[in-house]
Amino acid sequence: MATKITYTQQGDYLLPDLKLPKQPKVEIGIWGKRHLRYIKQHHPIIYTNLLTSCKLTAYLADIDEEATEMFDRLVKQLAECEGVTELLKAENQMLWVRKMNNIRNRAVEIVNNDLIYT
């Protein structure tokens, strides 16, 4: 079965009207969006290869899932190590919030350094 190729005139040239196949609709979270922005800016060849091979969406979904799991695991582990418990939350909410914000910020930095910006 032959595919009909159409062309568009651009000045003196006829350029083929190329379109990428539709990629599946997958919801990409914050981690996947950060990584997408990073590879577009710093690794354009990798970005182009993933895009033209129709693997970009699946790749970003995998990165997003892995980063989310890593973030959740790190927050839990750091909270356990530092004794940030529900008891502390009940006794001193402001101290608990400060400690949890600190833990979450450190976990974000670790995920960014290990997965997102590499």
Q: What can you see in these coordinates?
A:
The protein has 118 residues and is mostly helical. 66% of the residues lie in helices and 7% in strands. It has a two-stranded antiparallel ribbon with strand order 1-2. The radius of gyration is 22 Å and the shape is rod-shaped. The mean pLDDT is 92. It comes from Ruminococcus difficilis. This is TnpV protein.
Strand content: 5-15%
N-to-C series of helices and strands:
EEHHHHH
Number of helices: 5
Assembly state here?
single chain
Protein name: TnpV protein
Pfam families: TnpV
Briefly, what is this?
This is TnpV protein. By secondary structure, this protein is mainly alpha-helical.
How would you summarize the topology of this molecule?
Layout lengths: L6 E4 L2 E4 L13 H13 L1 H9 L3 H26 L4 H6 L1 H24 L2
Antiparallel strand pairs: 1-2
Helix pairs in contact: 1-2, 1-3, 3-5
Search tags:
rod-shaped; 118 residues; mainly alpha; TnpV protein; TnpV; single chain
